[in-house]
Each structure stands twice: as C-alpha cells, then as structure tokens.
Amino acid sequence: MERTPRANVELEKVSVVRKSTGAAEIVLLHEISFRAGGGETTTIIGPSGSGKSTLIRLLNRLDELSAGRITLNGDDITAIDPLLLRRRVAMVLQKPFMFEGTVLANLQRPFLYRKETPPGRESETVRRALGLARLSTGLLERDARSLSGGEQQRVNLARALINHPEVLLLDEPTSALDRPTADHLAATLHDVCRAERLAVIMVTHDLRLAEHTADQLIYLEQGRIVEKGAAAELLRQPQTEAFRRFLAEPAWEKETRHGN
Ligand code: ADP
Ligand code: MG
C-alpha cells in the first residue's frame, strides 16, 4: 500500500487583519504556522470567535490572508485557480446542504458545474464515493432533502470526496448531529483520512470527535495558537492553564449540540 503522504499543506506566519467600521484594525489571526500532512487529521479547537472558521476558510480561499503564506505541496495557493483549488481542497460545512433532487443528482452536481458528463449510478466513481461515506446504494434514488441529518452529512462527505481531493476541510461537521450519529461519522472520517491519504483539517467543539480522530491538535485563542502538538498527549496533558481551563468547561458538550 502507498504510504507516502499525498498532500502537504503548510501555513507560514499567516495573519488576517480586517478593518472595523472605524479606522481600527482587528487581528482575526496572528502569525499562524503549522503543517498538515496526508493521512493525518489536524484538529483545531478553541472558544467561539477565536478565528477557527476564518482559518479553515483561508485554505480554499473563501477568505484571503493579509500576510504570510499557505502552500499545497509547495505551491502557493494564491497561484492556483480558485476553482481548481476547491477541487483539490474540499470542504464540508456544519449544516448539511442538499440540492433539490435525488442523492444521485447531488453527487453528480460537481460534474455539471464543470460541464463534464456526470457519472451514472452504476459507475465506479459513484460507488467509490458512496463507499467512502458509508452510504448504501439504495439511497441513490431518494430525495436528498428527505434524508436524516446524519445521512445528509454523509451525502455532503460523498460529494466532497467524489472529486478525489487531497485536502478535506470540515467546520464543526457533527454539531447538528446526535451523539451516536456524530460518533459514527467520526469513525468514517478516521477511515477515509487513512485510506485516501487525505490531509484532514477539522474544526470542532466536540471533544469526543477530537479524541477519536485527531493526530495533531491546535488550540486557538483570540486568533493565536496557544498549543500545538500530538493530540493524544495534549489532551492528556495540556501545557497551558488556558487550555486546561478550556478542556474543563462543560461548554464543550453543549456547543456540540447547538453549534455556534
Ligand atoms: P470561530 O469560528 O472560532 O467562532 P470566526 O473565525 O468565525 O471564529 O471569527 C473570529 C472573529 O472574527 C469573530 O470575533 C468574528 O466576529 C470576527 N470576524 C469574522 N469575519 C470577520 C470580518 N470579515 N470582519 C471583521 N470581523 C470578522
Ligand atoms: Mg466557527
């Protein structure tokens, strides 16, 4: 089996500064540096408003950085056409979004955007995406919007994976799901990351999800990295008082269900 990482995302001193309504500047992210490798999950956690969504949105250029550099396999992402970049760096959002129509139509959507012939229900492309997201082929003809939240999130995942991305971004993917469904999705993500050698970069409020999937953990506060390292070690032994306090907050579990 191929063991070399497929993707290598690197952030070097990435900052995001926005002008507020007055003349004052707000620093949303300050000199963020880390590397996310293929076959590994990098999990970003931190209080509400700490810049987690902004950080993840930089990686497929839904937001633009003010300083620093982000590279994908050594290439500056600003030099990559945004549409091609978003194919290589797929994103799954907090709340599943289903287009009108069947599950199959939802999976064919990315191809129609690109004016390519969409793969049929029996195609290897569709079967592979369904398999990775652990969806049964029996769902293909169902109205996507009639599915449960957990099933819809899996269709989202399948739709993200159908383009063979190198990087998968997830912003609180389980926050709209109940506990068992969230755990099931976490197990799926873990397997997909390993099997596809994907660089998974995920924001979550869900401690269980972080424990079960994270290889590297990044703790953000007010746009700055407070802790970064091997997830198992940091979760067992936080290095700072700030992170210790954060882990002890009951808000962890609450925000899992309500999102932010
Ligand atoms: P998180 O996902 O960790 O909750 P966000 O990245 O959504 O945090 O937001 C970080 C902070 O930046 C918040 O205080 C938010 O209100 C603010 N913010 C987000 N986008 C902008 C923007 N375009 N201009 C100014 N402030 C912003
Ligand atoms: Mg957010």
TrEMBL record:
SUPFAM superfamilies to which the protein is assigned, alphabetical: P-loop containing nucleoside triphosphate hydrolases
One Pfam family, short name: ABC_tran
Record flagged with keyword Oxidoreductase: no
SMART domains: AAA
Residues annotated as domain ABC transporter: 9-247
Signal peptide region: none
UniProt GO MF annotations: ATP binding
Keyword hit for ATP-binding: yes
UniProt keywords, alphabetically: ATP-binding, Nucleotide-binding, Transport
Protein name according to UniProt: Phosphate ABC transporter ATP-binding protein
Organism: Geotalea uraniireducens
